[in-house]
Write a structure and sequence with these properties.
Shape: globular
Helix content: 40-55%
Distance between the termini: 23 Å
Mean pLDDT: 91
Order of helices and strands: HEHHHEHHEHHEHHEEEEEEHH
CATH superfamily: SGNH hydrolase
Strand content: 5-15%
Strand order of the largest sheet: 1-2-3-4
Number of strands: 10
Structural class: alpha/beta
Largest sheet: 4 strands, parallel
Length: about 350
Amino acid sequence: MKHPISVLFGMVMLIASSVAGAMPFSNLFVLGDSLSDTGNLFLATGASPLFPEPMPAAEHYDQGRFSNGPAYVELLAGQLGLEARPSFAGGTNYAVGGARSRYHRFDLQPNGEPPAGPDPMFFPFSLLGQEQRFQADVGPNLDPDALYVVWAGSNDLYEVLTLFEHDGGDTTRANLRLQEAVTDIASIIGRLVDAGAETLLVPKVPDIGLTPEMVAKGPMAQAIATGYSQALNELMDGMLADLSANIIRFDTFEFLRAAVMDPERYGFDNVTEPCLDNFFVAGPIDPSRPVSTCDDPEQYLFWDIIHPSAATHTLLAGAMRRAVPEPDLLFLLGAGLALTWLVWWFRNRRLQ
């Protein structure tokens, strides 16, 4: 008869070897906005007669991304041995640039306020619309071994700020839009969990008060934008607290603040201005001025007035990768500790 220690040792090594060969996650699914879009809006607008050119403009943005290079989500996917191809090209990334929780940028009223309701044509671009397309593709039961990324809310804040400004500082309509957005996003996450999702990366919205757009508007606008960014994150934290899943709340808010406060640590020379000057997504901001690009984009935190540069996306991907657990490595660590204890226990018994 084999010694119990030999049996336990064999079991630990067998399980550890089988887990070590497995991937941490079976797949990656993404819902979100321009921070995560790897080409969906570009493909959709390029195929529609409503738009003269695909968005974002290929001349100033990298292959449908809202930056000058790969987005954090595809870099993160690569580090996990997965992909984040656009869903409109058959992939698993459903994020669309310009998405709000229940409508799209294309739905905005001429004065920049939210629409009375989403246009059916553009609803699939919204976060709720992305959820519907995702559900239609994958069915009612989700893969518990996949990683689900839901990053949204930043765009909704711009309408919150617009309503605050138009109402002369009255917060009634602004707060309603904020609560509506948080409820929409949290409800989507809740439905994903109910359908079987077990690990979700839900980054916090960044401090949009630090974007070049808000910096140009002055300290008061920055403070209001920062306050609403914090409010959205806090409301979301509360609504997600009781979900029975591993919700990873990567703190993009503090990440951006740290980069602005200590640029050299992150490799930046400029954290207040965009590398791409006087151009946003589809055209010049001020037609009377020329469009220009900085000499060294790697030194800039921002590519345009709100979107991060490729260098920032690279840093985000690395930081998020460290925040996402590796099931295999965690198991191996536990197995190693168990084996160490067994060896210690066996040796001590022999000495007694």
